[in-house]
Amino acid sequence: MSGTDIAFFLLALAAIAGAVMMLQLTNVVHMVLSLVMTFLAIAGLYVLLSAEFVAVVQVLIYSGAITIIMLFAIMLTRHHADDKERQTTGGVGHKAAAAFAVLAFGLAVYAGIRTLDFGADGSALPADNAKAIGQWLYSYYTIPFEIVSVLLLVALIGAIVLAKKDGKGAEDE
Amino acid sequence: MMEQWLESAPSWSNIALFFGLGALLLAVVLAFVTYSILAERKVMGFMQGRIGPNQVGGRFGLLQTVADVLKLLLKEDTIPKAADRPLYVLAPVIAFAPSFMVLAVVPFTDAFRFADLGVGLLYYIAVSGLTIVGVITGGWASNNKYALLGGMRAAAQMISYEIPLVMSALGVVLLAGSMNLVDIVNAQQDVWFLFAQPLAFLIFLIAAVAELNRTPFDLPEAESELVAGFHVEYSGFRWAFFMLAEYVYMFAMAALITVLFLGGWHPVAFLGWIPGAVWFALKFCAVVFVFIWFRATFPRVRADQLMEFAWKVLLPLSLANIVLTAVVKAWFF
Amino acid sequence: MTLSAYLALSLILFCIGLYGALTKRNTVIVLICIELMLNAVNINFVAFAKYGPHPSVHGHVFALFAIAVAAAEAAVGLAALIAFYRNRKTVRVDEANSLKH
């Protein structure tokens, strides 16, 4: 067992543990923070996959920005502590049906990927992948890149408009 | 020397070596924290016509901080009854751990550096963002309205000022052609980026002070309105952890400014016979002095001014700086 | 490490996210579960970039696009949540059942 294998198993364990804790905990803030562990473990996996640029972006966007706005949204809305038992929808039947469907999906996909191997050892990746990503992004992927920037602008404006108080409602208050 | 170690095959002796080096760096950082607190009190004292600490440890109060830390460790460790216990305990650790992790990519001299990461600058920004999670967690877990307000303010402020911080550093990245901090230092062999990127330096310095939650941007712990901000319920060594994180970030940020704008370990003009470590330390101390100077001379800004300043002044300026730098680089290089 | 190990991990995370998105009733948690599913997909992109039939950084570029879109989705989703909370005083996703308040 090499060091990479050990690192993979530890990170995979951390990622799955965070996700399972997210399902099991009842407090919303605890759930978000347990998912931070998953996001960080996934960033570690990206480093193992020699994608350090994506790993850093993962930490920056997920653990930094998205988690913080999730926490802000939680603190700006009210989450009753007394309806812990009502955190999930439906009853046991609904849960069982969802679990069955998810399990069936998982097993079907697992049968497909179990022995998947293309024989690549990963040595073909350029070492300086930030530079390679930049060059692809500004040549081959220029149009998608611009569209993503427009999408982010639209999301920014849309979020402000949605979260702003309605003109009529603000006058009433 | 370090490079050979970093590239050698992993073994137990290597692990021991890196552990030892990490412990050495921790010792250096803790010594810095001890004496920067003393320096802060002394410098502020002199600026305000006082003497500052002068009792413990001789005429200059050299052991004052040590005594303070010992007192802190002896204090009762209180956890409020209504606090969220696991998160209350965890929050100082979440806040402190990233502050030490960011030091891994900062190159102190040619030989003394740890990780030679291709995306070093982004790594610094990304990992330092994790502290915000610790701060907001601490504020929420204390179950105290002042702590929560302080935590929310801190998160909003640090997220907002991260953007001009990155945007202004992009000018440096454009000129150096790399995000690797070693390459950035090497690109300043002839001209420091302080002179090539004066606007970026100003924006970066202001955003850095805001990121550090220091005066004039110390709203998260504004004592006159929020008691003490997000750590109001903390005491003893847990409180010390928050303080430690703050000062380790001051160390890291001063080192980063030295690396990005002041030429790192490169000497001034003809004084090349002085070793690089001394130059780094000198520039570093100058930056720390500026931080302390700011604290002694500026009043605190208001919360609305704080946000407007980040989004309406610093962000457009840093965007303009990027465009300007790109144009200059495309035409003249 | 083989490709299938990464794919299996990503499958597990995707299934957990899917289960959470189907059963949780708190809107924030449903959004978070969707983020988890997107993360699982990103692991696939990056794993194929290294161990796939044609190793290159295209997988990384796609993962970056996915992260950008996920960030936009989270921002708009949370803004919609706050607008919804203002009208209905609740964050339960199953009570969002009328078009006008």
From TrEMBL, chain A:
<feature type="transmembrane region" description="Helical">
    <location>
        <begin position="6"/>
        <end position="25"/>
    </location>
</feature>
<feature type="transmembrane region" description="Helical">
    <location>
        <begin position="55"/>
        <end position="76"/>
    </location>
</feature>
<feature type="transmembrane region" description="Helical">
    <location>
        <begin position="96"/>
        <end position="113"/>
    </location>
</feature>
<keyword id="KW-0874">Quinone</keyword>
<keyword id="KW-0472">Membrane</keyword>
<keyword id="KW-1003">Cell membrane</keyword>
<keyword id="KW-0520">NAD</keyword>
<keyword id="KW-0812">Transmembrane</keyword>
<protein>
    <recommendedName>
        <fullName>NADH-quinone oxidoreductase subunit J</fullName>
        <ecNumber>7.1.1.-</ecNumber>
    </recommendedName>
</protein>
<comment type="similarity">
    <text>Belongs to the complex I subunit 6 family.</text>
</comment>
<dbReference type="InterPro" id="IPR001457">
    <property type="entry name" value="NADH_UbQ/plastoQ_OxRdtase_su6"/>
</dbReference>
<feature type="transmembrane region" description="Helical">
    <location>
        <begin position="138"/>
        <end position="163"/>
    </location>
</feature>
<feature type="transmembrane region" description="Helical">
    <location>
        <begin position="32"/>
        <end position="49"/>
    </location>
</feature>
<comment type="function">
    <text>NDH-1 shuttles electrons from NADH, via FMN and iron-sulfur (Fe-S) centers, to quinones in the respiratory chain. Couples the redox reaction to proton translocation (for every two electrons transferred, four hydrogen ions are translocated across the cytoplasmic membrane), and thus conserves the redox energy in a proton gradient.</text>
</comment>
<dbReference type="InterPro" id="IPR042106">
    <property type="entry name" value="Nuo/plastoQ_OxRdtase_6_NuoJ"/>
</dbReference>
UniProtKB/TrEMBL annotation, chain B:
<protein>
    <recommendedName>
        <fullName>NADH-quinone oxidoreductase subunit H</fullName>
        <ecNumber>7.1.1.-</ecNumber>
    </recommendedName>
</protein>
<keyword id="KW-0874">Quinone</keyword>
<keyword id="KW-0830">Ubiquinone</keyword>
<comment type="similarity">
    <text>Belongs to the complex I subunit 1 family.</text>
</comment>
<feature type="transmembrane region" description="Helical">
    <location>
        <begin position="191"/>
        <end position="210"/>
    </location>
</feature>
<dbReference type="InterPro" id="IPR001694">
    <property type="entry name" value="NADH_UbQ_OxRdtase_su1/FPO"/>
</dbReference>
<keyword id="KW-1278">Translocase</keyword>
<keyword id="KW-1133">Transmembrane helix</keyword>
<feature type="transmembrane region" description="Helical">
    <location>
        <begin position="121"/>
        <end position="142"/>
    </location>
</feature>
<keyword id="KW-1003">Cell membrane</keyword>
<comment type="function">
    <text>NDH-1 shuttles electrons from NADH, via FMN and iron-sulfur (Fe-S) centers, to quinones in the respiratory chain. The immediate electron acceptor for the enzyme in this species is believed to be ubiquinone. Couples the redox reaction to proton translocation (for every two electrons transferred, four hydrogen ions are translocated across the cytoplasmic membrane), and thus conserves the redox energy in a proton gradient. This subunit may bind ubiquinone.</text>
</comment>
<keyword id="KW-0812">Transmembrane</keyword>
<feature type="transmembrane region" description="Helical">
    <location>
        <begin position="247"/>
        <end position="265"/>
    </location>
</feature>
<keyword id="KW-0520">NAD</keyword>
<feature type="transmembrane region" description="Helical">
    <location>
        <begin position="309"/>
        <end position="332"/>
    </location>
</feature>
UniProtKB/TrEMBL annotation, chain C:
<comment type="subunit">
    <text>NDH-1 is composed of 14 different subunits. Subunits NuoA, H, J, K, L, M, N constitute the membrane sector of the complex.</text>
</comment>
<comment type="function">
    <text>NDH-1 shuttles electrons from NADH, via FMN and iron-sulfur (Fe-S) centers, to quinones in the respiratory chain. The immediate electron acceptor for the enzyme in this species is believed to be a menaquinone. Couples the redox reaction to proton translocation (for every two electrons transferred, four hydrogen ions are translocated across the cytoplasmic membrane), and thus conserves the redox energy in a proton gradient.</text>
</comment>
<dbReference type="GO" id="GO:0005886">
    <property type="term" value="C:plasma membrane"/>
</dbReference>
<dbReference type="InterPro" id="IPR001133">
    <property type="entry name" value="NADH_UbQ_OxRdtase_chain4L/K"/>
</dbReference>
<keyword id="KW-0520">NAD</keyword>
<keyword id="KW-1003">Cell membrane</keyword>
<keyword id="KW-1133">Transmembrane helix</keyword>
<keyword id="KW-0472">Membrane</keyword>
<keyword id="KW-0874">Quinone</keyword>
<dbReference type="GO" id="GO:0050136">
    <property type="term" value="F:NADH dehydrogenase (quinone) (non-electrogenic) activity"/>
</dbReference>
<feature type="transmembrane region" description="Helical">
    <location>
        <begin position="61"/>
        <end position="85"/>
    </location>
</feature>
<dbReference type="GO" id="GO:0042773">
    <property type="term" value="P:ATP synthesis coupled electron transport"/>
</dbReference>
<keyword id="KW-0813">Transport</keyword>
<dbReference type="GO" id="GO:0048038">
    <property type="term" value="F:quinone binding"/>
</dbReference>
<feature type="transmembrane region" description="Helical">
    <location>
        <begin position="6"/>
        <end position="22"/>
    </location>
</feature>
